[in-house]
Amino acid sequence: MPAFKISGTFRMGEFWQRFTKEIAAKDENDARDAILSDLGSKHRIRRSLVRVKTIVALKPEEITDEVVRHKTGGGK
Fold first, then answer.
1. Closest among 21, 3, 6 to 62, alpha carbons compared
2. Topology given in CATH for the domain delimited by 3-71
3. pTM as predicted
4. Which residues pair with 8 in a beta bridge?
5. Mean pLDDT over residues 35-44, rounded?
6. Angle at 64 between CA 62 and CA 66, to 5 degrees
7. Domain map of the chain by residue range?
């Protein structure tokens, strides 16, 4: 399963908060859906208040999140 690095902003009260997160997903659409779901469940924000700026596919050696590395098959 490929890994993606997603960056963007989401609205927290009056301010826009930046985020960058690594996600293991089938493709870019699933990665976008996963980040929207994750931010919505953790911060109780609607999908319309999340702005995804970039989605970049990661090579196995570029993955820094241990959980994502394990899900992609690169973990030990």
1. 3
2. Ubiquitin-like (UB roll) (3.10.20)
3. 0.89
4. 19, 52
5. 94
6. 125
7. 3-71
Instruction: List the structure tokens of 58.
Output: 């990661």
CA distances from 68 to 21, 33, 63 (A): 10, 16, 7
Q: Given its phi and psi angles, is residue 44 left (phi above 0), alpha (psi -120 to 50 degrees) or beta?
A: left
| Torsion angle, alpha carbons of 19, 24, 29, 32, to 10 | -20
Number of helical H runs and strand E runs in the chain: 2, 3
pLDDT at 74 over 90: no
Query: 3-state class of 20 per DSSP?
Result: strand
Which amino acid makes up residue 29?
Answer: N
How many residues in the chain? Answer: 76
